[in-house]
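FAQ

Q: What does a record look like?
A: Structure on top, sequence underneath. For example:
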């Protein structure tokens, strides 16, 4: 009985010490939780890469749509962003107020007067409901500065659900003949609308990655 009692006391002490140390470890982890910067280190400043995004904006209603796009994009994106806005007069009035009021760190924007470049695309026969506005994306390599080598074009009616950074890896390992990147339409909606000139479902021009440097060299 004495032996069993001694074993019981030793076991009780061992269990107590285990519980004590495990509780202390758990409490230590709770109190000294690492910050987000410690668990997911941001890249050094000299390794940050600015990603360029371009939008075509016409009218006040377009800005209402684009505001949702801006917020969802910046919510998920890490690193500096540069917006390029090809905008008409009404949109320009709102954009300045919007971004100057937000005062976002690591976000720059540049606005281009759409009217200046209208002649580049309005000669193209077009029955699209957005008229020549929809064709302005064809002139992006000419409109944007020469130091912008890659840019992501986005339609305004988009909600971003993840970081767009991996999209810019698309051109890695490709040769100079690859000028832009698109994806197929996932929805049969356009085919159901009647006459649809594209092969199959066609491509989605609302998310368009452009290698503007190569496009200029190719005299796009």
């Amino acid at each position: 009985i004495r032996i069993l009692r001694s074993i019981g006391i030793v076991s009780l002490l061992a269990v107590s010490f285990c519980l004590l140390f495990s509780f202390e470890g758990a409490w230590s982890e709770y109190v000294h939780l690492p910050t987000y910067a410690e668990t997911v280190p941001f890249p050094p400043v000299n390794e940050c890469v600015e990603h360029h995004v371009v939008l075509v904006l016409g009218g006040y209603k377009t800005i209402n749509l684009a505001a949702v796009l801006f917020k969802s994009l910046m919510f998920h994106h890490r690193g500096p962003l540069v917006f390029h806005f090809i905008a008409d007069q009404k949109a320009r009035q709102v954009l300045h107020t919007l971004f100057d009021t937000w005062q976002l760190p690591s976000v720059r924007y540049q606005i281009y007067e759409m009217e200046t470049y209208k002649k580049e695309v309005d000669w193209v026969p077009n029955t699209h409901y957005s008229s020549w506005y929809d064709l302005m994306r064809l002139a992006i390599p000419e409109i944007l500065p020469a130091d912008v080598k890659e840019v992501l074009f986005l339609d305004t009616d988009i909600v971003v659900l993840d970081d767009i950074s991996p999209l810019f890896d698309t051109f890695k390992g490709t040769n100079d003949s690859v000028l832009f990147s698109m994806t197929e339409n996932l929805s049969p909606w356009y085919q159901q609308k009647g006459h649809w000139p594209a092969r199959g479902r066609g491509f989605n021009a609302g998310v368009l990655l452009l290698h503007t440097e190569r496009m200029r060299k190719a005299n796009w």
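Q: Is there anything notable about this one?
A: The chain is about 40% helix and 15% strand.
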